[in-house]
What we know:
The protein is of the alpha+beta class. It folds into four domains: 9-48 and 665-759, Sandwich (Immunoglobulin-like), CATH 2.60.40; 53-295, putative glycoside hydrolase family protein from bacillus halodurans (Beta-galactosidase, Chain A, domain 5, Distorted Sandwich); 384-554, Glycosyltransferase (Alpha/alpha barrel); 785-906, Galactose-binding domain-like (Jelly Rolls), CATH 2.60.120.260. The protein contains 17 helices and 54 strands. The strands form 14 sheets. The protein has a nine-stranded antiparallel β-sheet with strand order 5-10-11-12-13-20-17-16-15. The protein has a seven-stranded antiparallel β-sheet with strand order 6-7-8-9-14-19-18, with no helix packed on it. A seven-stranded antiparallel β-sheet has the order 21-32-33-34-39-36-37. The longest helix is centred in the middle third of the chain and has 22 residues, at 446-467. The chain is globular, with a radius of gyration of 28 Å. The termini are far apart. The model is unreliable at 1-28 and 807-815 (pLDDT under 50). Keywords: Signal. Residues 1-28 form the signal peptide.
Amino acid sequence: xxxxxxxxxxxxxxxxxxxxxxxxxxxxSPTDAAFSTxxxxxxxxxxxxxxxxxxxxxxxxxxxxxxxTAGNGRTGAMVWQANGLTMQVSNVDASxxxxxxxxxxxxxxxxxxxxxxxxxxxxxxxxDGTLTTKYDSNRTVTIMGQPGSEVMGIHVDxxxxxxxxxxxxxxxxxxANLGNSGDVPDINTWRQVSSYADSTGxxxxxxxxxxxxxxxxxxxxxxxxxxxxxxxxNSRVRLTITPTSSYTVWFTASTRLNAPSNNSINQAKNAxxxxxxTGYGTTFTxxxxxxxxxxxxxxxxxxxxxxxADYLENVYYLSTYLIAxxxxxxxxxxxxxxxxxxxxxxxxxxxxxxxxxxxDVYNSFLASNxxxxxxxxxxxxxxxxxxxxxxxxxxxxxxGLWVPETMGWDGNARGTVGSDYTKNILSTGxxxxxxxxxxxxxxxxxxxxxxxxxxxxxxxxxxxxRMLSVDVSGRYYMANSNSHETxxxxxxxxxxxxxxxxxxxxxxxxxQQLGLDSGLRAEWQRVLDNLVAYPQQxxxxxxxxxxxxxxxxxxxxxxxxxxxxxxxxxxxxxxxxAVNTWNARPFPYGNVWANDAVQAARLGLGDQTFNGMKRMLxxxxxxPNGFTNNTNGVFEYHGVHLSxxxxxxxxxxxxxxxxxxxxxxxxxxxxxxxxxxxxxFLVSSEREANETKYVGLRSQWGATARVVNPWGxxxxxxxxxxxxxxxxxxxxxxxxxxxxxxxxxxVERTAKPLTSYSTTRLTGSQNQGAKSLSGTASTLGLNGxxxxxxxxxxxxxxxxxxxxxxxxxxxDYNDDTHHSTVVNAAASYTFTGTGIQYLSERNGDMGSVDxxxxxxxxxxxxxxxxxxxxxxQVVWQKSGLSRSQHTIRxxxxxxxxxxxxxxxxxx
Length: 907
């Protein structure tokens, strides 16, 4: 495709607030570097490195909410142990906003797969994208998929003798009482179920009469064994398999949306026949190659800090997998429904795509070099351009583009205009336009800029030009709008003012770049030159012109200027005002979609970024599979985590590539990455002992680079890797150089060049157990009985006066808690180990509990604390025990709340 002129990009390297002093060259503690000058990226053994982040269950999990996951980009399965292996299956394009999961698939054998074994392990291999369950050495079940399709597979190797039967059942939940969740025109189409069983396999269909062409068929067949198919009832079909030592069950959630003539039944049969013809071996290889290629596009190491940074890094890779496993459909991976749920058809907030929430899920994928994932998100809005243009004219009587904050799959605004929270939000169109512009800046797709991004940019600018008012002095202002969902019907919402200051310069530049709409530029420039200032008070930005209106939601609206509006940050004249605004934000980490940590990174606050990522996991990562039980969202905090870590390592939002702008100040931090910057720079760098070693840039398109010296005024040089030619030597604070496409450059200190480091390759060791995040109840994985690790409170024994809480109220930071308000209510847990920690929240409604160990009184623990609820913490602990069986007992002392969140056992 034809390239357009690229805007210059500057490179700013180093942590802005913790820069290395410029007096003498600092020596790195480690002496090696992993940058490959030939490849222009870090040299990584991805297979071994990612293996250290596998999620491992060393005991069977029977809780659907804890189910581990596997997905091929469109169809996902969430797996737990119930009558064999059971999984909830869903497809990202199955229904509106994926509101309804496809159904259940169950694999059962006689004798049971999980009977008579001594060793068990279930492993989610991120590098291969597989979920493998092993029972001893004679039973292995591998869940994988066919890339680029809607087909998944269950491959079974079972060499036991005496297996008398194998069945696979596909089923649905009771659809009779199905609620009208999702933007569904007729819920009755989703209550209607049909089934089939024939020589090709068996399947269940619903949504077949959906007028918008949604709906699906959940179907299965078998490769490698004989089988018969039968209909059990209207919502259950069965495959009865003749036992063999190795066979594959192929299943699909084939959607009407993606099927020829919208016939999902024919599509399911054809897809299953095709994959069966290709065969398990070839399909498995293709599937692993799909994931291997995916991971090879970028790399992140965020390590050290007593293991906590490694835990955050583990979540980074897990979160990337969870989203990508369902991110390649025609519709976005919905922020609360996705393709991984264990809730049947039960869902919430699913009548639209909330832009605020969806951006959290997707905005990290440009920097991680997965622009195709971001394109899936942008496509939802670009394909609805005409519908939105028409609705803007109908609603506002202006020629421009308004985008509803809560938009239906077809561009409808039903979820927005019926809500006081969202009906007067004007800035969503700007966000959509800006993300499309970013997609161009990361892909250099000239056709996309001209035909998709620019029309959105132009029409958004036209909309704001018409919606702004002009006072007697010629100043433009916003008379009335919502400052997002939190402040309704206010004057000069800061989101609108920031949108104008962001998108109008882009509109001016791109229109000139494309040679279009010269007649609009004078108006855009006039608005930009005469726009009222952001509302401020006491050295910080306000969400709108004072006095502040009633608070309706928990958003930190004024901090939006920092991210994702991108109009302030490191190096901006109003930097201190931005920091003051962030420090004074009214709702720190207030919900599962809170983006505080991303904004901290944009401000160069490395320690706050690290602590923010940790706090978000402390509050919302409740399950050992990485999921949350928060009912306001499921996947937002995964995406926030991704953006925060990317922004801590690399920034290019303001056309300056900043390397390690928000690294933690602790010298034990180890950071290494290969990420994508604007204008096609694949950037690599390493930082250890508070020192940035070098910066490697692979220029994909030949843009100009400006470099801000990361080492103060120490002399640096730019070296072309292909011939070691020194293109530039400078001690200036900032310099620039031209680049050629597909060429690698190294920015290095003259006194300590990259060649002074020995070369290395980054590797890792395969994870074999559960991991914990210190000071929190967050874990990844399950250890075997008696092993070290966090134990959910539900594994204890409780008298009738203790109650399990699974909804917000008691235990806002971990909804799975046990609590009691009855004096002498007792709970106990028996464990084998050398130590025990008792974890609980603290709050003003709580009282005291007594702790006993092996029937001996240990302590009275006061859980009452004034002020805000305190998150999970260790409230009592004991170490140095003999490694034998012990019992901890918690006794409530008063009618105030006594609470148990979890235990942590030391083996």
